[in-house]
Amino acid sequence: MLLLTYYNMANRYIFNSTLSGYIRVDEPNQYGCTFEYSVPEDTIKEMESDREELLAWCRTKLPKADKVRDLPWANGTTVRYQYQQPDSKNPNPAVVWVDTEGSPLDKEVLRSVREGTKVRLIVQHKPNPFADKIGTKLIVLGAQVLELNVGKAVDSRSLISS
């Protein structure tokens, strides 16, 4: 029953963003896959409001928890996201990457994703109770590539659509 309740206590957001920082999304290395994305200000405000409700739920599960984890977007509006980490005890699921028509992207296209690529993200904000700390975490469920930046060229259709 706790598991069902836990997954019902999540909020979903869909927004456009631009990828930044170190990006590796084709296949995991020893640290997994990673990218950074920015969250629009209006979505941050909504997430902050929702966070209070999620923390209240955490407090019902861990009433003795006396520490609250930092915000997932603590460094402004940028979030660093990692998934498929080989040694993680609580790995994030793989992100589903699709093109502008909704078709899955192959590894060759994913290997060419660079900083500046424009995407539409589906992000889940859920409670994260753990031992003596409570908090929330963001899980990227899917990414639709709107404009692919491959370094020296930007393509918003032909490279990512068959």
Describe the structure.
It is a single chain. This protein is an alpha+beta fold and 162 residues long. It has one domain: OB fold (Dihydrolipoamide Acetyltransferase, E2P), CATH 2.40.50.140. The protein is 20% helix and 40% strand. The protein is built from three helices and nine strands; from the N terminus they run H-E-E-H-E-E-E-H-E-E-E-E. It has helices at 2-8, 41-61, 107-111, and strands at residues 11-29, 32-38, 67-68, 78-83, 96-98, 118-127, 133-134, 136-149, 154-155. A hairpin with a 4-residue loop joins strand 8 (136-149) and strand 9 (154-155). Residues 1-7 have low confidence and may be disordered.
Topology, please?
Blueprint: H1 2-8, E1 11-29, E2 32-38, H2 41-61, E3 67-68, E4 78-83, E5 96-98, H3 107-111, E6 118-127, E7 133-134, E8 136-149, E9 154-155
Helix content: 10-25%
Mean pLDDT metric = 85
What is the fourth-level CATH superfamily?
Nucleic acid-binding proteins
Write down the Rg.
Answer: 17 Å
Number of domains: 1
Can you write the helix and strand succession as a string? HEEHEEEHEEEE
Q: Show unreliable segments.
A: 1-7
Which of globular, elongated, flat, extended, rod-shaped describes the shape?
A: globular
The CATH architecture? Beta Barrel
> What characterizes the major β-sheet?
7 strands, mixed
Secondary-structure class = alpha+beta
Q: What would the CATH topology be? A: OB fold (Dihydrolipoamide Acetyltransferase, E2P)
The span between the termini is 44 Å
Tally of strands: 9
Highest CATH level, the class: Mainly Beta
Number of discrete helical segments = 3
Q: Tell me the fraction of residues in β-strands, as a range.
A: 35-45%
